[in-house]
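User: Please fill in residues for this 724-position structure.
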């Protein structure tokens, strides 16, 4: 049958010249779509897609070197020893994902996503690289003291991260910095196993208890320095140290005139939140002198701001601080250490730019050389002994070692209309509506692209208004929507941006994106040997319009992605049809700042180290993410009582008919297990169906079920196993 034979009525109303369009000729003129320079360069130079193309597209060499690369299989690998990593030592992230997520019954760990992968070897390499950079600068410039840094625990207070830093930093006398009483207790405990010369720098606002703990730490032979953030703190230090008979080591934080103009520079300059003015510093010196404790003043601290963009700004700030240091020496203070604070930045977008909050224009060696040169120049001019150089680099130490991996669970399908459906669409409309539609099509056929888009918007709004008035049915509204979207897509030939729904809470796992617009590199961790054929934004699980990621490195508002299996795509690339994305360089601040919006808790965490085994890694530690019960407890709920309430309710409404005891038991078992499961989505079948097939009891996996069956547990024991 001819294509139009069944559409005679609709075709008959078509004005002359439209028969070809109705028959399926949709060759509307296409506007050249916008493409980023990176994408354009990659696409124009290749007909065959390779991992190297993906590496260039996602700028992996820019922000990821020397720790991340793409292997021949198209998977992202971790290079745990940086530039010193051999080919066989690279760790395939997809293999980690498989090991961690596979059920225990097949040798996996059975952890749920989202997932943080920690690589302590990278952490160690960052510490070694930082110390090596300063050691090289000190030797090359004839500097007559040494460098010993501290890690500010606020960047990531995780126990194992801090313990690893103390262990890896021990050969370098690397210490810790605390900014609150809990952080001080943490640092005191960890440094008991560290180098005895390692500094414990006590920053932040202080009360009597804080100062007591800091002085107690000195009594415990920890190399503790109390840094004065407010002038009044010196009175407490003098008073409490005399009561404890402890000779304190004191530092002062100076407010510099040098100011960091970027987002992270709000704590710098004369009006910064922290530190003392020159007038206040002089009053502190006088008070210490009057108390016979001026020799206790041994450290000068300052902070230009996080993510210092250039060495020019760095040298200006360090040079100004070195002048203050030299003046304190002249006034008789027992000065020994200059603490340059944080600010050592990382390159989030691979641009190597000095004009962005997302990048820096220097490397570790340039940073260290600039610091050493600025201090040496002032001290030599003043004939002052070179001080110990301390820095509080947190972001630069921990950012690279932590990777957040999460699944894309679905994606919006592109709205497409087959031109052959046009007669059916027109048939459902009134005469004036059909006339409007033909006007729209006529504009397209005349190559009037701008007019066409205007007509589409006007037509759509007109019929939305009619629908709201109740004079248009939903079928007709859908027909007009389909036609307008079809014409808009034909005029703008670029693929429409899709929304990928990800198994994640941005508020919990990437809070800096939501709160300050911080952009992190986000990349598929596999299938990078295939061309990403769509662009998308990421939408999380929360019931919040801010729960989306629509800004990416390079100033992009969408991310190149692959089709999901089942969405017309090309398979899972060795990941069982699943699509995994990784957020990189997020090891600083994200875990400590994350909340429990919508009661989504933190991710599962696994720590891996390089090994000479077949997969190049070994799992050292695996911790499931917080369960529903755990996050409920955070908000003062009591999951045990909640379960009992629901259990009694189920018995009242579902357990009265004893002929259906199996379904009742399944219901109770499912409720019980739900308290123990993570709040995030799972790909497995509904647990209630699993429970019903197991005589009414739910088990997280086959292994647990087999254990319960073999033990011959009673009904009460079965149920306590579910929710105890």
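Assistant: Residues filled in for all 724 positions:
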């Amino acid at each position: 049958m001819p294509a139009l034979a069944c559409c005679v009525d609709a075709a008959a109303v078509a004005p002359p010249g439209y028969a070809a369009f109705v028959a399926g000729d949709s060759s509307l003129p296409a506007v050249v779509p916008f493409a980023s320079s990176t994408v354009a360069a990659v696409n124009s130079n290749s007909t065959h897609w390779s991992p190297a193309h993906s590496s260039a597209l996602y700028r992996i060499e820019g922000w990821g070197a020397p720790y991340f690369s793409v292997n021949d299989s198209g998977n992202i690998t971790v290079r745990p020893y940086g530039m010193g990593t051999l080919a066989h030592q690279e760790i395939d992230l997809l293999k980690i994902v498989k090991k961690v997520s596979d059920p225990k019954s097949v040798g996996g760990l059975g952890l749920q996503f989202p997932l943080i992968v920690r690589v302590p070897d990278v952490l160690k390499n960052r510490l070694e690289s930082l110390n090596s950079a300063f050691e090289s600068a000190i030797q090359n410039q004839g500097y007559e003291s040494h460098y010993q840094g501290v890690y500010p625990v606020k960047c990531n207070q995780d126990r194992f991260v801090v313990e690893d830093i103390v262990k890896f930093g021990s050969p370098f006398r690397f210490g810790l910095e605390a900014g609150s009483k809990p952080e001080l207790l943490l640092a005191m405990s960890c440094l008991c196993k560290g180098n005895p010369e390692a500094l414990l720098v006590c920053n932040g606002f202080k009360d009597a208890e804080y100062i007591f703990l800091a002085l107690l730490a000195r009594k415990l032979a920890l190399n503790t320095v109390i840094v004065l953030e407010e002038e009044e703190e010196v009175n407490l230090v003098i008073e409490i140290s005399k009561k404890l008979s402890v000779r304190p080591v004191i530092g002062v934080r100076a407010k510099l005139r040098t100011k960091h103009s970027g987002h992270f520079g709000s704590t710098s300059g004369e009006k910064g939140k922290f530190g003392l003015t020159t007038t206040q510093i002089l009053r502190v010196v006088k008070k210490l002198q009057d108390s016979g404790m001026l020799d206790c003043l041994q450290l000068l601290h300052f902070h230009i701001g996080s993510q210092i963009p250039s060495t020019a700004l760095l040298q200006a700030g360090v040079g100004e601080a070195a002048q203050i240091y030299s003046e304190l020496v002249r006034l008789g203070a027992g000065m020994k250490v200059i603490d340059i604070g944080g600010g050592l930045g990382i390159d989030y977008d691979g641009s190597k730019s000095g004009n962005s909050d997302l990048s820096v224009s220097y490397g570790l060696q340039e940073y260290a050389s600039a610091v050493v040169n600025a201090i040496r120049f002032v001290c030599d001019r003043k004939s002052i002994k070179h001080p110990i150089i301390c820095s509080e680099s947190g972001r630069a130490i921990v950012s690279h070692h932590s990777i957040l991996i999460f699944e894309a669970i679905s994606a919006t399908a592109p709205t497409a209309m087959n031109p052959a459906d046009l007669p059916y669409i027109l048939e459902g409309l009134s005469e004036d509506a059909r006339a409007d539609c033909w006007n729209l099509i006529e504009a397209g056929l005349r190559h009037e692209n701008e007019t066409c888009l205007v007509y589409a918007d006007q037509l759509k709004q007109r019929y939305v208004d009619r629908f709201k008035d109740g004079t248009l049915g939903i079928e007709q509204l859908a027909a007009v929507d389909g036609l307008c979207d079809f014409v808009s897509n034909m005029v703008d030939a670029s693929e429409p941006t899709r929304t990928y729904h990800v198994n994640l809470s941005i508020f919990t796992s990437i809070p800096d994106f939501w709160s300050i617009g911080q952009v992190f590199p986000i990349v598929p961790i596999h299938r990078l040997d295939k061309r990403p054929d769509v662009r998308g934004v990421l939408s999380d699980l929360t019931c919040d319009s801010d729960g989306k990621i629509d800004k990416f490195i390079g100033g992009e508002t969408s991310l190149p992605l692959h089709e999901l299996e089942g969405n017309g795509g090309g398979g899972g690339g060795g990941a069982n049809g699943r699509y995994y994305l990784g957020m990189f360089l997020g090891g600083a601040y994200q875990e400590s700042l994350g909340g429990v919006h919508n009661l989504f808790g933190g991710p599962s965490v696994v720590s891996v180290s390089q090994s000479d085994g077949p997969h190049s890694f070994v799992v050292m530690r695996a911790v499931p993410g917080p369960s529903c019960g755990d996050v409920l407890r955070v908000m003062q709920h009591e999951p045990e009582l909640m379960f009992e309430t629901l259990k009694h309710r189920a018995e009242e409404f579902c357990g009265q008919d004893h002929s259906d005891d199996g379904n009742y038991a399944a219901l109770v078992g499912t409720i019980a297990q739900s308290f123990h499961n993570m709040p995030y989505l799972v790909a497995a079948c509904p647990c209630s169906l699993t429970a019903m097939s197991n005589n009414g009891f739910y088990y997280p996996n086959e292994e647990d079920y087999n254990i319960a069956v073999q033990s011959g547990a009673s009904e009460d024991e079965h149920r306590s196993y579910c929710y105890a």
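For context: The chain has a mean pLDDT of 84.
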